[in-house]
Design goal:
Layout: H1 2-14, E1 29-34, H2 39-58, E2 63-68, H3 69-74, H4 77-81, E3 87-89, H5 97-105, E4 110-112, E5 133-137, E6 139-140, H6 151-155, E7 159-160, H7 163-175, E8 180-184, E9 192-193, E10 198-199, H8 200-210, E11 215-219, H9 228-236, E12 243-245, H10 253-258, H11 265-278, E13 283-290, H12 297-310, E14 314-319, H13 327-331, H14 338-362, E15 367-375, E16 382-386, E17 392-396, E18 405-413, E19 417-422
Parallel strand pairs: 1-2, 2-3, 3-4, 5-8, 8-11, 12-13, 13-14, 17-19
Antiparallel strand pairs: 6-7, 9-10, 15-16, 15-18, 16-17, 18-19
Bound molecules: 5'-deoxyadenosine and iron/sulfur cluster (SF4).
The site of 5'-deoxyadenosine has 12 residues, from strand 13.
Amino acid sequence: MNQADSGIITALLQGEGYVQAEQELDAGIVLLNTCAVRENAVERVEHFLQRLQGRKKREKGLIVGVAGCIPQYRKEEMFSLYPAIDFLAGPDTYRTIPSLVEQVRSGGKLASLEFNSAETYEGVEPVRQGATSAFVPVMRGCNNRCAYCVVPFTRGRERSQPVRSVIVEVQKLVASGYREITLLGQNVNSYCDADEGYDFAALLDAVSREAPLARIRFTTSHPKDISEALVQTIASRPNICNALHLPVQSGSSRMLDRMNRGHTIEEYREKIALIRSVIPDVALSTDIIAGFCGEQEEDHQASLELLADIRFDSAYMFFYSTRPGTLAAKTLEDDVPEPVKKRRLQEIIDLQNRISGELFQEAIGTVVEVLAESESRRSSEQLMGRTAGNRAVVFDRENYKPGDLLNVSITGATSATLTGRPEHIYFLS
Ligand code: 5AD
Ligand code: SF4
């Protein structure tokens, strides 16, 4: 979502005649678009701002702006903490950034941090990286109140992009030759265009028909909004990838209740069973947090058991860090000692890596359809692409180029990458 938002900010600035610098030191305006979801993301921004302080002193005209979720909750205190900053803009006020830049040129510090639950950035065509895969934000904000999460406080209430404007954007992407479209939202499957009577399943169906030659993905889904209609839509439309990212956060109902997730672990398992019964080859991934407030050893064991039972393709795994202003920060004690959190997280990572490794090994000898994305990091003789299940595949380049869809015969695997060579079909006459 941040990458997509950076594309929106870039488009707004380019609209005013600004040009993106090749590298940081060439830039006269340095703009950080920030994430506040976990403490280590915030720490990285803090270090960057401290480092920028020296340059700011040396270069008189340098303008520094901070956008996104961190300024939205830390507000004007950012100015005294990090004197390098000239202006702040929140997730709903990116449209003000060009005028903030102009205003701070004549001195002073400015903050534009109002919430605007009508803002969907409709009509702004984001500047995208690459010409193969495109993000399309379809909803913003979150109406849930997960106890650990700062997002509802930084991104505000849910609002959806009208279906008509999503379709227009998709049509433009198709005309420009994009081969993969990822619909984005904090809770993408609670998408709702009430005027046109579209829920997320209907939107997904419409997008997949509008872009029949592109792969369609979406993220992130909340378990409570996984409907049978949505699962049937994924199964019935060939170009919707059979892949679902479904954060679980914990394997223990007691913890899910404390986290205010709105479902039990049995209900989560039922959703997974429904998905697998309708889409047998679905690739599942998840998010999981170790060491949330009050987590006991048995809750942690329940998380390990869940991972072992479900066998997700992959997982984003974190240890809990308190976020200011959240329900947990206000009402629960962050009582799991840090070494325990880290040990539990390591056990989760080790187990998941083993499972991912096993699943990847099972792919050796199969032929998978891959969308080539870019040159591989290791060798210019190889390309990197992804399967419909979102597995990274590195393969011999031959005459293929990014954007090509091809079959790859898998010959090797690590826990994160498959390797192989393009499959050639020979016809005998
Ligand atoms: N501590 C650790 N992980 C968190 N996440 C969200 N808030 C926190 C927090 N305070 C994780 C969740 C979420 C993902 C985007 O980040 O797993 O799904
Ligand atoms: Fe945060 Fe929960 Fe909303 Fe996801 S659903 S953004 S974890 S509050």
